[in-house]
Design a protein that fits this description.
By secondary structure, this protein is mainly β. The protein has one domain: YVTN repeat-like/Quinoprotein amine dehydrogenase (Methylamine Dehydrogenase, Chain H, 7 Propeller), CATH 2.130.10.10. Helices cover 5% and strands 51% of the residues. It has one helix and 29 strands. Strands 2, 3, 4, 5 and 6 form a five-stranded antiparallel β-sheet that branches.
Length: 374
């Protein structure tokens, strides 16, 4: 088994050397606040990119002087950078936070306002889900508490595990992922940045489940790729959900794919990486084609027209991540050298890719922008 894992890693790395690498058009080190270090594990950073190229990053940091991990103080900042990487502002997000963060996400809506979502899931003081609305200059405009999906699902310690926090054309946000006490049933909802619940769907009844991808279509309706537990408890199945702009579910179609966890909604249909292949489907959920996929693990995907960017790795434990660019036929156009850990990636308005990269020792962060090679 170890030999097989090494062969897979060598194959991926060897192929990486033979393929083009992207151009790096920005590389900015990110620093922790004085007396703090970046959270070395989950929910370190979440980035969002505005239409003018400005970047907003929610950063979770922990007290670097406290030796007891359970007693470390936590600080969450919202960092704003201009397109050239210069700092616009850095403000503290007034969040209740210790190491028990269930989700940390950032987004920017068309008006320029920035949303930060923080889920605090420590069962001692209680579960809180806070939505912060910031003005484009960093001024806090409002903090709202988002309650559980219903009274029935609110007890005893259910919380949101948010995978996607996306802006809508009307300056609201779509949240999707799961809700529960861990593991989770799938859930999605639309909120104003002032915390008003506009509509929701779920939570599902199976465990674990997830909303792995969401995207709006030009007509205003939404597509969601949802992992749902088989009614007989025999594993997870993929379903393509379709919602009207008002949140009414129009259809729910089983997609001919089994396995995997990441997915993407593309300009036409979508894709699911499953072991050694990519499974493509159309907007009706019907299978279109399957193509080989040389990566054992795909942890996140960002659509790029009919193609996508993805964070991938080999089969061995703690294999360094690569970022790859894939065209609409499933061909890998370029791949980075090993980049350590990759807490967050997002598409920039000019079609380039922004990525927060974490060093292999988890101590430092960088913001990197990638473009296609010449």
């Amino acid at each position: 088994m170890i030999r097989l894992a090494l062969i897979l890693v060598m194959t991926v790395c060897g192929a990486a050397a033979a393929q083009p690498q992207p151009r790096i058009t920005l590389d900015v080190p990110l620093t922790a606040s004085a007396g703090f270090q970046f959270e070395p594990y989950a929910f370190t950073a979440s980035l969002a990119v505005a239409g003018d190229g400005a970047v907003f990053i929610a950063l979770k940091q922990v007290d670097d002087s406290e030796k007891d991990e359970t007693e470390k103080k936590v600080r969450i900042d919202l960092l704003a950078l201009a397109r050239d990487g210069s700092q616009k502002f850095r403000v503290v997000v007034p969040a209740t936070a210790d190491r028990s963060t269930g989700s940390l996400k950032a987004t920017v809506v068309p008006s320029g306002d920035v949303g930060v979502l923080h889920v605090f899931n420590d069962d001692r003081p209680g579960v809180t889900t806070s939505l912060y609305r910031f003005a484009p200059d960093g001024r806090l405009k409002k903090k709202s508490e988002i309650g559980p999906p219903s009274r029935r699902t609110g007890a005893p310690y259910g919380y949101y595990e948010i995978q996607h926090f996306q802006p809508t054309a009307d300056n609201a946000v779509m949240l999707s992922g799961g809700f529960g006490s861990g593991p989770y049933g799938w859930w999605l909802g639309k909120f104003s940045l002032d915390g008003v619940r506009i509509f929701q769907s779920g939570p599902g009844q199976g465990f674990p489940e997830n909303v792995s991808a969401m995207a709006a279509r030009p007509q205003g309706h939404w597509l969601a790729m949802v992992l749902e537990m088989d009614p007989k408890g025999m594993g997870l199945d993929w379903y393509l959900h379709r919602y009207t702009p008002a949140g009414q579910q129009q259809s729910r179609v089983k997609v001919p794919a089994k396995g995997g966890y990441a997915a993407a909604i593309l300009s036409d249909g979508g894709v699911v990486p499953i072991e050694d292949k990519l499974v493509y489907f159309n907007d009706l959920g019907r299978g279109v084609r399957e193509v080989p996929w040389p990566f054992a693990n795909t942890t996140s995907i960002v659509p790029a027209g009919d193609g996508f960017w993805a964070v991938v790795s080999g089969a061995a434990v703690d294999t360094p991540n690569l970022i790859v660019r894939v065209d609409g036929r499933g061909n890998v156009l370029w791949r980075t050298p090993p980049v350590g850990h990759t807490p967050s990636i997002a598409r920039a308005s000019d079609g380039q890719l922004m990525a927060v990269l974490r060093s292999a020792d988890r101590a430092t962060l960088r913001l990197v922008r990638y473009d296609d090679p010449p």
